Structures are given as C-alpha cells and as structure tokens.
Amino acid sequence: MKIILVLPRIDTYVITPPLGLGYLASSLRVAGHKVMLLDCLVKNIGVGKFRKILELHRPDLVGINTMTSYYTEAIRYVRAAKEMGIKTCLGGPHVSALTQRSLIESGADFILVGEADHSIVELADALEKGGDLSKIDGLAYWEKGKIRINPARKLIADLDSLPFPDWVQLNPNQYPYAPHGAFVKRFPVAPIVTTRGCPFNCSFCASKCVWLRILRFRNPKKVVDEIEMLYTKYGVREIHIEDDNFTSNRKHAEEVCKEIIRRKLDITWACPNGVRIDFLDRELLKLMKKSGCYLLALGIESGNQAILDKMEKHLDLSKVPGILRMIHEVGIETWGFFILGLPGETKQTIMQTIRFAKENEFDRAQFGILTPLPGSTIFEEWAKGKTDFDWKKFNFYDLVYVTEGLKGEDLLRLQTKAYRAFYFRPKIVINLIKNIRAKQLSFILKRLKTYMIPQAKSG
Where in the chain is the domain with CATH 3.40.50.280? Predict the structure, then answer.
C-alpha cells in the first residue's frame, strides 16, 4: 500500500524532525508498505504544492500529524486529499482528546487515537486486504454515515520492539541550525526519545491523553545504538533528548550517560523539552556533564507556590535556588520555562514569577502564555458549555484563555515585560552573544519579534 505521512507547514520557530511520524514510517515499512514522509514545514510545502505531490504519487492513504496549534492547517491538507478521492487519517494529541468532534470538523476518514505505531499498520493492512476495521483498537472512523470509535488501544509494553525512526527520510542534515529557535553547540542536531510518557498530572499538560500517565523506557544500550548510528551515518554531533522527563527514573538516565561515556562518543546533548529540577542531584549531574550534557530546560512554570499547588505541579519552589546553583557548579546551563496567566493568576503573581526568574541562576528563560490544550485538566474545566473554538489561536502566543482578575492586554504587556526584564541585563546579553552562531541569528530574531514587541502579538 502507498502511504504519505504529513507534517503540515505551519508558522513556528520549532523546526525539528517529526519523530512521531518517523516511528510510524518505520513500522509501516517493516510491515511491507511503501511510505513517503513529507515534512511540509522544513520543505516549505503548502497545500498547493501538496496537491501536486498527491497527483504525482497517487497514494492510497494520507496520514496527517495534528497538534492543536496546527490542527486547522491539518484540515486543509485533509481536504486537499479528499478532493482527489484519497483516504485520510489523522493522529496526535488534539484528535486523541477530541476524537468525535475532530472527525466531524475535519472530514477525515479515520482517526488513530493515542499511540499509533501498531494501529496504523493494522489500518493499512485492513484497507489493502479488506479487513475488519472494527477489530482495530484505537481506531475511530465513519461507518454508514455514523461515527464508530473502537475500544482504546493498550500502550506498547516493549518500546525496544519498535524499529528506529525512518532516519533516511528524517535526515538531520536537511534541518536548520536552530531546531528550537534558539542555541545549539554543534551541528548537525538530531532529536531522540529514550522514554514515552510522564507519570505526573500537571493541569496545563495534555500528555496524558496519549500516554495515560504511564512511563515506559527504552533499553539504554539501544538508545545509544541509535545515537551512535546517527553519529556515524549522518555526522550528528548534538543530540536533543525530547522525553517528557528524561530524569524521572534516575537509573535510566544514569545508564544512558554511562553508555555514551563507555563508547567514547564525541557529542554534546541537551534536554530542550524540560526535566523536573527536583529529580536532579550532584552525582547524576556530574555524569550528565561528563557524557556531553550542556543544557537543561527546567519546567518551573510559576514563581508563586500557591499557583503551582493549584495546578498540581508538586514542586517546592524553596528548593529551586539551591539546585540551580548546583547545576551551574557542575557546568551545565539552565533554561527556565514559565507559564503566565495560569488559573488564579493576578498581576502580582505574574510579577513574582518575573522576579523569581531574574533573581535565580537561569541562563535563559521562556515566558509562555497559557494555552488550554485539549486533553488537559484546564481545558476540560474551561471548555464546559463552550461549543466554538478558534483553533488557529491555540498557538501559545495569541490570547485564548484569560483568567478572572486579568485583562488580555495586561497579560500581553506582562509577557513582554518578563522577556525584557530577564534578557535586557548585561550578564545575560553577554552570555547570549557568546553562544550565538551566525546561522542561528535569523531564528533568534524571529523569536525576539514574537515575544518582545507587543504589537507583533496583538496585531
């Protein structure tokens, strides 16, 4: 069966190989299907070019990755394929959280709910051989004009049973020099995952709608097998570990680091997706540093303890300054993640967050405006009674959710204030200048425009 897997073209500073589609492509290939992986973002393929590709290749099935921030754009690709009589399938956290609504809104033929590595293979097999769709767990589809949603699929117990992502089509050398719109040490860069899932239940996070708060691990040796393959075959010199929380299990993180050291791999690596700061200790940090780690993103979220407690973060802010000092003593840089506009926020609590970011040893900081993601507790509470959503605005910088006691213009102004207060300081500016590479400059300027110039956000 001929299948095209698609990441839509979207307006974002995060341009990195879509690992999820890479895993699906490999599983389909192992099962004997022909797969084209089409990253429309990195290849600048809009819907018009996409139609021409469909005309040229005439696939039997088009699978499209969807997150809330680009769900509306994904629908345009669905409709382009449907106009040509091609079967379409959506997957990802947005459609997993809002399955029935998404089938209706998008007009797609199928939705793969949750973890899709096995269900997409079963769907392709069934379409090719005339199999029974009702037997495919985790599949939602149309049957005689009505929506049918099959039983949920169990999570894959053995992650090592999955093939590596399709790195032939995800070649790291075709991606830009700022995969997260910021700094890296060395090029090329490749993302990997060493775990799937997160056991925590932060109210702003939608991870649970796919991973069910169950944490599973890859064998550390197989993780480093993949790193070594990327190093040897593609010349990769930096790895970004994209786990929801790489350090949740200390032994796992430790074994990955030891294996990198044992094989004497000359790499640098970072955790740009965030780790829990309260799961770090000096010995683990030393091991991480020795194996090549130079940067940890840290999900702090708020500088107000009551706000953190309300969103079930379970982080004691009083411990953060000491751990930050320890991280810097080991020689690893820190990138603080903060969310402005959480439920119960006021101007005063946001100012506390800004002061917390400035007064502690963060090398960088990110101040996002809360977006209520489908599948999160915040969305479930906020969306009660609502029927219309402008999904285009669920992009982490447009205003979607404004908590009681704040005005939208105040939130935008405070976000700009946060970035300026943090970054317009001599020690931060000097550090940034030291780390900038020429090829990254355009991506960094785009982020500055997005977050530090108010009219770019409100207009």
Answer: 2-149
Say which residue the tokens 């799961």 belong to. 279
Residue intervals of the chain classified under CATH 3.80.30.20 are 171-458
Name residues whose C-beta falls within 8 Å of residue 430's C-beta, 6 or more positions apart in sequence: none
| pLDDT tens profile 244-298 | 989 999 999 999 999 999 999 999 999 999 999 999 999 999 999 999 999 999 9
pLDDT tens across 204-213, in order? 999 988 888 8
* pLDDT of 438 higher than 80: no
Q: Which two tokens stand for residue 18?
A: 């879509």
* Contact (CB, 8 A) for 188 and 180: no
pLDDT digits (tens, 9 = 90+) for 298-318: 999 999 999 999 999 999 999
Mean pLDDT of the chain: 93
Fold of 2-149: Rossmann fold (3.40.50)
Return d(Cα 356, Cα 352) in angstroms, integer.
6
Structurally, at CATH architecture level, domain 171-458 sits in Alpha-Beta Horseshoe (3.80)
As to burial, measured by CB atoms within 10 angstroms (0-12 exposed, 13-18 middle, 19+ buried), residue 171 is middle
| 404-417 burial code (b ≥16 CB/10 A, e <16) | eebeeeebbebbbb
Q: Give CA angle at 24 (18, 26), nearest 5°.
A: 100
Mean pLDDT over 344-362 rounds to: 97
Q: Retrieve residue 146's tokens.
A: 């009505």
Can you tell me the distance from the alpha carbon of 24 to that of 1, in angstroms, rounded to the nearest whole number? Answer: 14
Assess contact for 9 and 73: CB atoms under 8 A.
Answer: yes
